[in-house]
Queue: 3 jobs
Job 1
Amino acid sequence: MSWLSPDSQDMLAATAALPEQLADSAVASMAVEGLPSVEGLNGIVVLGMGGSGVAGEILQAIGKDQLGIPISLVGDYSIPAFVGRGTLVFAVSFSGNTEETLEAAESALQRGARLIAVTGGGRLAEMAAAHGAPVFWTLRGIPQPRAGVATTTAPLLVALERLGLLTGVTPAIDAAVAQLRVRRDSLLGGKGLALEIAQRLDRTLPLVQGANGIGAVAARRWKTQLNENAKTPAFYASQPEWCHNEICGFGCNGDVTRQVVTIVTLRNDFEHPQVRRRLGLVEQFVGEAVAAVIEVHAAGSGPLAQLFDLIMIGDFASLHIAAREGIDPGPVPVLVEVKRFLASTGQ
């Protein structure tokens, strides 16, 4: 019997399949035809919400040091005023029916932007087909958008490599796949680092932080996975911003925070030296005001490998917390209710 029970949507298997998902999606992305021209391109926008939106965050963190044009992320119904004929717009929707992404994509098309859809079908696929835009199809059989992080991320990275806007994507993906397989082997069977983290959290509220870039993306991913898989409150922050404001918030109420808050610090090898020093001081400055400070160190060759390594650790930790509380990690009934409410005539 699986250590994760209940698990009605087999989220454990979906989480463990992350390396194959990344590898297979990268291969499939190489075959998509009809990519737009980059002539006169002056900006990139990624549209996406929730589990689909994280793909844009990963692209921004990985590509910011290479891309010679700005990249903006939109998790909303509206798009920035600058979007126009010189803008490449990635519309990412696992279901193809995310209303915010659909409305924003329609607006982008009306302004003449160059659209690329990343989706499993739905109205987004229909919209792309009607406008002659390429579609990068997400893999089938993934139970929830949040479990499809690799199949929505690989198309963005591969597309930009094929367009000549990024280099080194293929070896970076290979390194990430290799590291994910190593990490998975250490976590399967209900053991390893993820279990230790879940045990140390012990029903406290996680405040996850990481260095701006891949660390901050991983921290937000941990927060949302804890929310959706474990159905628990969780929060995230980024460094060095944390040291300019949030650190002050532990100056009082320590009798409360040391009972209910645990800080989880995600570390990687690509932190700015000053940020590295700040992260190293977290326990010294706030350790007495929280239940614990847990440091998690990424492994792998390169930023993409280390980012996905942190993602997998966090995903497994959220499943362990769900298991400890007897929570089924797959279904998210409150989100279904929210969508039903918004779609009703009484909205």
Job 2
Amino acid sequence: MNRQRQLNHNSDPESYRSLLPEIANLLNTSVSYIEKYPTDIQKTLCEVYIAHFDSNEIIIKQALGQVIQLNTETEKQIEQAKQQALHQEQENKRFSAQAVLSRELIMESAKIIAEKNQQRNNRQLQNVEYGQFERKNSESE
């Protein structure tokens, strides 16, 4: 590894990709596995690799491992957030369905109550009319 070549990569962001084989070798993985990471993570790996160029191999591996670990933890947090959002959406749909059902029940109950009130009012009206009829009949006798 030529120090000058490594430092030149710092000035050309696109040339970072040429460092991926060396990074993959240090991490005991394949280049294609590292290429699965988002571009910003790949660039960060290369920057960490260049920043720790003068260090020994163990320190470089630890530094690179921390970048990957942070990415993995972030991915887990994103997945958890997605799961929570999905669960919340399902709860909202369930609550919404219950609210619609409740509204339908309330409307049906209100209709039944209105009909019963109308029947009661009609009976009272009939009783009043019948009472007036009875009074008229008793007065006319």
Job 3
Amino acid sequence: MSAAVQVGIGVIESDGHVLVGVRPPGVPLAGMAEFPGGKCLADETTRACIVRECREETGLMVVPRTHLVTTRQQYDHGIMALSFWQCGLSPDLKDLAPATNSFSWVPFASLNSLDFPSGNDEVLKLLLDFPGSPS
């Protein structure tokens, strides 16, 4: 059995909204909704990965606060260990707008209408059971 790829994912919340993007064409699960994040580098914690990936993908500086859940998911492109962290924006951040059009702020209540990959099911259940959470 092959080792799972470690993935750090940030559930970035601000004022009752969460940052959600759409996976680009040409990548696995293209067109599906996603939270910012990505594969961990060698010897990188999922927490550090989220900070790096969010900066690269959105231009925003985030502060991981609470580990929400880690799930293991088998996709066609491999086995992923998905670590979801509740994150806030850096306190000194002046602009809340992501630097790219592929991410936008959506209300927590709208998450159930988006098409996320199945590896997100457990964290979505947590988020939708507690609207406005995690805070």
